[in-house]
Amino acid sequence: MDQNDTDVEAGELPLRRVFNEELGCDVLDCAYLSAACAHCDDAPCVMACPFGAPRYLPDSGKMVKCDGCNERLKSGLMPACVRACTFGALTCMNEEEYQNSVKARALHAMLLATGHRS
């Protein structure tokens, strides 16, 4: 059994906190991600993905989802959506790169708050 076999009740979607990073000054950086696919009738992820990665299978009533371009990553390539995003809004990074970006953002915010420009 996987998350596709779980019926999702109407109402507030289940969320889980994925990480909780202390940034200093009692500020926490948290990310909340959906715990499971809600199998929406009019799924926004299907409309948003330029590559058709999430797809609804009418025969089974289930969604087939993005795998993060795992094979591309294994070959040293970026996920297709990251590569194709003309605005640079998407990134792909490992845990160490993420931790460094969190620290850099926190430092930048503290410098701005104290009147310094970086």
Automatic annotation (TrEMBL):
Q: Name one GO molecular function term.
A: metal ion binding
Which residues fall in a coiled-coil region? Answer: none
Superkingdom, natural source: Bacteria
Domain 4Fe-4S ferredoxin-type as annotated: residue spans: 47-91
Q: What keywords are assigned to this protein?
A: 4Fe-4S, Iron, Iron-sulfur, Metal-binding
Keyword Ribonucleoprotein, does the record have it?
no
Q: Which Gene3D superfamilies match?
A: 3.30.70.20
Query: Matching PANTHER family, A to Z?
Result: PROTEIN NRFC, PROTEIN NRFC HOMOLOG
In Swiss-Prot or TrEMBL terms, this protein is called Dimethylsulfoxide reductase
